[in-house]
UniProtKB/TrEMBL annotation:
This is tRNA-splicing ligase RtcB. It comes from the Bacteria. It comes from Nitrosospira multiformis (strain ATCC 25196 / NCIMB 11849 / C 71). Keywords: GTP-binding, Ligase, Manganese, Metal-binding, Nucleotide-binding, RNA repair. Binds 2 manganese ions per subunit. Mn(2+) 2 binds at H235, H325.
Length: 475
């Protein structure tokens, strides 16, 4: 990205000045100069397009891990007021609706567990279906799938996948209201009936990690974290159902935008007024997909626990937190001293409530919501907590963020060589796709340390712990 086009407001905050005659809201980009330089100029074009949509409140924003995506940039945040003609956008949510990370903390330490990592990796790889279109053992009939879309993680717990205690530490307590399975196409439902309890492909993973470094001992204590502790992160979403909903509604919402007189500078920004029939229809389908994703990660949590107790009989895995990063949520925010209900799009961005927020579980209410910045399989990840002064509608970075396309990564790396190289570093990779490993090469991502530092510097979230990968099942 050419920084000469930007104006720096703070060390980790920039704006894109309007061109003469340009009519749009403000654009804000969070991140340090090195991170912004690593971004494609397409990010600027896309976030400027978002700033032109009706009913936007405040600025259209990008997080420090932003990169260009479909319509909205990934790492994009935008809030709309339905009472002012604000819109809901399928491109602003993304295809993998409610993709997110479930983080589990264990009572195991590295020195207790490391001897059995080869056995653990093989057992997890057998138990966790991963890959394009891969199905699991759970086969749902239409009625059962409707129950999943209504019940989310609650449905999974009722079926014996996990415990009620998990639900206290899942965003929305494991289930969002307003899901309407009738708004989901039969094709989307058909794609999902065999995919519950599966990881998927692409950048999805299940990773066994060790707490390598603590930044804030007091908050770490509140989160139940200590150096040398084994954690597990599960990164996946709503699988085929969410992707098909995104595909179906891009067409419907593009037509609705045209009928509503909304100028779309990019057709991939397909949107409709929140209050329109099409907008309400999409929200019902999106909420169904969110519940599907929450149920999926709950099932994967159960499968992971089963493997761990098989290898380590003394193992106990508790849900640290589960948060999505491809959603639109109706939330109340203070705008110029007034409480307003806004539809906050976070595409590749994580909700990050600060200390004291009433939606946080009691255990975390004094320290803020846990936030996970997932890194690549060769570097590491961060746990942070939301900042009470967060200026971005309580949003934060969600990962390292791609620095190059999958096509570019394929041209530069070979999967087999990467697996061997990472093994030399003590990181065991299990995958069905060496092509997928090459596409997700650690070098294809931004420096996760810089992303976490910039996230903290910008006041989005505060670092608590750094996690180093040890075993990774790649999607």
């Amino acid at each position: 990205m050419n920084l000469e086009r930007l104006r720096q407001l703070q060390p980790c905050l920039w704006t894109l000045p309007r061109a003469p005659g340009e009519e749009r809201a403000q654009v804000l980009l969070y991140g340090s100069a090195p991170l912004l330089v690593s971004m494609d100029d397409k990010v600027l074009e896309q976030i400027a397009n978002v700033a032109s949509l009706p009913g936007l409140v405040g600025a259209a924003m990008t997080m420090p891990d932003a990169h260009w995506g479909y319509g909205f940039p990934i790492g994009g945040v935008a809030a709309f007021d339905a009472e002012q003609g604000g819109v809901i956008s399928a491109g602003g949510v993304g295809f993998d609706i409610s993709c997110g990370i479930r983080c589990l903390r264990s009572n195991l330490n590295l020195e207790d567990a490391v001897e059995h990592f080869p056995q653990l990796g093989k057992a997890l790889f057998r138990a966790i279906p991963a890959g394009v279109g891969e199905e699991g053992e759970i086969k749902l009939n239409p009625e059962q799938l409707d129950q999943v879309m209504h019940g989310g993680a609650h449905w999974a717990v009722q079926q014996g996948y996990g415990t009620p205690a998990d639900l206290d530490y899942v965003e929305e307590q494991g289930r969002v209201a307003g899901a309407i399975p009738e708004n989901v196409s039969e094709l989307a439902k058909k794609r999902q009936r065999g995919e519950m309890g599966t990881l998927g492909s692409g950048n999805h993973y299940l990773e066994v990690q060790v707490v390598d470094r603590i930044f804030d001992p007091g908050v770490a204590l509140a989160l139940g974290l200590h150096e040398g502790q084994i954690l597990i992160s599960i990164h996946c979403g709503s699988r085929g159902l969410g992707h098909q909903i995104g595909t179906d509604y891009l067409v419907l919402l593009a037509k609705a935008a045209s009928r509503s007189g909304i100028h779309l500078p990019d057709r991939e920004l397909a949107c409709a007024p929140v209050k329109s029939p099409e907008g309400q229809q999409y929200i019902g389908a999106m909420n169904a997909a969110i519940n599907c994703a929450l149920a999926n990660r709950q099932i994967l949590t159960h499968l992971t626990r089963s493997v761990f107790t098989e290898i380590y009989p003394q193992a106990e895995l508790e849900t640290l937190f589960d948060v999505s990063h491809n959603t639109c949520k109706a939330e109340t925010h203070q705008i110029d001293g007034e409480s307003r209900l806004l539809y906050v799009h976070r595409k590749g961005a994580t909700r990050a409530f600060g200390p004291g927020h009433p939606m946080l579980p009691e255990r975390y209410r004094q320290v803020g919501q846990p936030v996970v910045i997932g890194g690549s399989m060769g570097t590491g990840s961060y746990i942070l907590v939301g900042d009470s002064e967060n200026p971005a509608f309580a949003s934060s970075s969600h990962g390292a963020g791609r620095a190059m396309s999958r096509h570019q990564a394929l041209a530069r790396w070979k999967g087999r060589a990467l697996v061997d190289e990472l093994a030399q570093q003590g990181i065991l990779i299990h995958t069905r796709s060496m092509r997928g490993v090459a596409e997700e090469a650690p070098g294809a991502y931004k420096d996760v340390d810089l992303v976490a530092e910039a996230t903290e510097e910008a006041g989005l979230a505060r670092r608590v712990a750094f996690l180093r990968p040890k075993v990774c099942v790649k999607g």
